[in-house]
Amino acid sequence: MLITVDTLRADALGAYGHASALTPWIDKLARDGVRFDRAHAHNVVTLPSHANLLSGWLPIDHGVRDNSGFRFPQSIDTIATILKARGYRTGAFVSAFPLDARFGLARGFDEYDDRFVDTTPRPAFLEQERRGTETVARARAWLAAGQGQPTLCWVHIYEPHFPYAPPAPFSARFRDVPYDGDVAAADAALGPLLEPILSRGRDGDTLVLFTSDHGESLGEHGESTHGIFAYEATLRVPFILYAPSILAPRAVSTPARHVDALPTILDVLNVPLPSGLRGRSLIPAARGATETGTLVTYFEAFSGALNRGWAPVTGVMRGDVKYIDLPIPELYDVSADPKEQRNLADREARRVDEMRAALRPYANAQPVAAARESAETRERLRSLGYAGGGETRSRPTYTAADDPKRLIVLDADLQAIVGQYLGGDLKGALVRARGFAGAHPDMALAQLQLGHLERESGNLPAAAAAIRRALVLAPQNAQTAGLLGAYLTDAGQPAEAVRVLTPFAATDSEAPDIEVLVSLGLAQARLRQFDAALATLQRARSQAPNNAMLLVHIGTVGLMADRPDEARRAFESAIAQNPSLARAHSSLGALHADAGRKDAAFAEWKTAASLDPSEYGRLYLLGASLTRAGRIAQARPYLEFFAATAPPDRYQTQIAQARSWLSGAR
Questions:
Q1: Closest CA to 39 of 77, 21, 1, 13
Q2: Is the alpha carbon torsion for 497, 500, 506, 512 positive or negative?
Q3: Which of 270, 506, 510, 567 is the most buried (most CB within 10 A)?
Q4: Nearest-CA neighbor of 33 among 220, 194, 225?
Q5: Across all residues in the chain, what is the average pLDDT?
């Protein structure tokens, strides 16, 4: 079993020295297993780190360098593809959008449970996620259904990720340190999964590998969360092996790396290792063997370069020496200086040269490229005016002015704008975002942030303009293109949306992004190109058959095309696949209402509103739109349901208006 806890610093656990931590289950796993005290990730964001873990390859090998704009290649094996080929039952249960199946890690898993992604719209500035308790419950049910079979199960928990919002009782106990509260909540969520494994003691036959994808800065070096720097706060991770039948409990000082996870698991299972892997098995070290030679650990952080235009962060560790290659280079002795406060680069020039030489084989490997589009697709992008046409937009050299150490204060400004919005001050956040984007016109992330806020304020043309600027800055980013297409369609420009999206959805591209296909399909539908729209959405379905929201989009196009039977089948299929999908229930209710089946419509709408209270507002808007169009008979069931069931404290004015329309119609 592979367990990964997102954004978990090693020193946030009791087992790694945090005296105030409330992590009894993970601590027991470490106490009864093998705890690696010097374990490191190679990346400081979710998708690349999990790609490293599952494949045994570095980001320079598989090409996934950030959460946005990259997909894991189908040509590279993972622990899932290797074990599935040997007859293992394979399941993955993930808790956040960066691990959605669309990004390529689902291959080889019989069950890849990311169904929370299609349940609700993606919130501005936050990732779609689900509670660890629900993820664990789904994993346990799947495990119980296959008892006795050789099984690989990966469980991913997201709780410690920003914004920290621990549930009770942890919210009260950790009121002043909510990150620690989220860590405690993650530990508690894992309890039902770990308890039956740990209770068997040395008679147990389950191998558990526990780690995190990266840590969290929590303000160290001026970084609020993670993604920019590669200091120990975000690079050092917990790494625990639990296999009581073959490994005695101990703490190990031998370095462990994410690329060592796959070779270690295969070694325990007596499965031959694929040739050429970057990692090695940790089983000898776990049994007490002393490792000869000095291991080199490569690491990188490219979010600042790709999203902000700053200098990329790369580096290596060798023993206790850590080198960070930046315009202002950094050299640390992490044993004597674990917080990396004393940069030795100016004093130890020879050591810097040695570490640069150690880094060189990695720096000369595959360049950063967020999309590998075909020549035809790149030419189409150029024709739209997006310079670069899918190639990375980068500078040949960086200066000290581009060093993220000198620019991290700008990241704090971006975080402050997000915090202001999340705190309820949209107007103030928008004013600050406009000023920041104007002062930093070459920062794609600033334009994306502004676009989100303009959309939240209802200014769709301005939102689309900001996202277009972001795409010009990062023309290879298909996810940005998908967002631009959606904004253009919402702003009443579906033809322009089709023009922008078509190159990214080209059939000669490798696995077009799902959001690109969805945005293109809905834009085509707005142009009444219904057959083309349905074909585009079916392409998306072929890539993500578990995404029930795609069926809702297909049903919506069926409604627009006046094909009620097709629409009904799509909505019913969506509900069968994911009963928690509020929009499917609401849309099916609309079909019942239009057919005169008011009771059935009310039942579906009641379910939809219980799943997502915002459906009340949507149903009111539909009723209001029909009323203003003079179609009061068609509007009646919407208005009646809304007036009878919507919460008065939130919709008092709208309820009065609905009743007025209904009274006037009589």
A1: 13
A2: negative
A3: 567
A4: 194
A5: 91
Q: Name the one residue in this structure whose structure tokens are 């290596």.
A: 316
User: Residue 370: which of 506, 223, 481, 257 has the closest Cα?
Assistant: 481
Query: Does residue 526 contact residue 489 with C-beta atoms inside 8 Å?
Result: yes
Three-state SS letters, 198-236: HCCHHHCCCCEEEEECCCCCCCHHHCCCCCCCCCHHHHE
Query: Do 280 and 73 form a contact (C-beta atoms < 8 A)?
Result: no
Q: Do the beta carbons of residue 392 and residue 476 sit within 8 Å?
A: yes
| Residue carrying the six token digits 């969506």 | 574
**Per-residue tokens: 463:** 């939102």
Instruction: Considering only residues 55 and 476, tell me which one the structure prediction assigns the higher pLDDT.
Output: 55
Contact in structure between 405 and 328 (CB atoms under 8 Å):
yes
**In this predicted model, what pLDDT tens digit does every residue of 83-109 receive, in sequence order?**
999 999 999 999 998 998 888 999 999
Cβ contact 346:369 at 8 Å: no
Instruction: Indicate the SS3 state at residue 4.
Output: strand
3-class state of residue 361 by DSSP = helix
- For residues 369 and 381, give the distance between their C-alpha atoms in angstroms, rounded to a whole number: 16
pLDDT at 381: 40
Spell out the domains of the chain, with CATH numbers in brackets. Answer: 2-289 (3.40.720.10), 313-363 (3.30.1120.10), 369-510 (1.25.40.10), 581-666 (1.25.40)
Mean pLDDT of 147-153: 91
User: What is residue 547's predicted lDDT score, i.e. its pLDDT?
Assistant: 87
Lowest mean pLDDT among 229-238, 385-394, 421-430: 385-394
Cβ atoms of 541 and 521 closer than 8 Å? no
Task: Give the number of C-alpha atoms closer than 13 A to the C-alpha of residue 458, restricted to the C-beta side.
Answer: 1
The amino acid present at 527, given as its one-letter code, is L
Query: How do residues 248-304 score in pLDDT, each as one tens digit?
Result: 999 999 999 999 999 999 999 999 999 999 999 999 999 999 887 789 999 999 999
Q: Are 315 and 206 within 8 A, CB to CB?
A: no
Euclidean distance between CA atoms 643 and 634, whole angstroms: 15
Annotate 575-634 with three-state secondary structure.
Answer: HHHCCCCHHHHHHHHHHHHHCCCHHHHHHHHHHHHHHCCHHHHHHHHHHHHHHHCCCHHH
Residue for token digits 């990259």? 70
pLDDT one-digit tens code per residue, 448-480: 999 999 999 999 999 999 999 999 988 878 889
**Stronger pLDDT, 54 or 392, i.e. the higher one:** 54
Cα–Cα distance, 234 to 617 (Å, whole number): 41
Task: Return the residue matching tokens 């990062």.
Answer: 474
Q: By C-alpha distance, which of 444, 421, 443 is closest to 431?
A: 421
Task: Please classify residue 483 by burial: count the beta carbons closer than 10 Å to its beta carbon, then call 0-12 exposed, 13-18 middle and 19+ buried.
Answer: buried
Other Cβ atoms less than 10 A from the Cβ of 439: the count is: 11
Question: Does residue 259 contact residue 278 with C-beta atoms inside 8 Å?
Answer: yes
Tokens matching residue 191? 């309890």
pLDDT in tens, 599-657: 999 999 999 999 999 899 999 999 999 999 999 899 999 999 999 999 999 999 999 99
Give how far the C-alpha of residue 150 lies from the chain's centroid of Cα atoms, to the nearest Å.
Answer: 29
Q: Any residues with CB less than 8 A from the CB of 325 and at least 6 apart, and which? A: 313, 314, 315, 356, 359, 363
pTM of model > 0.90: no
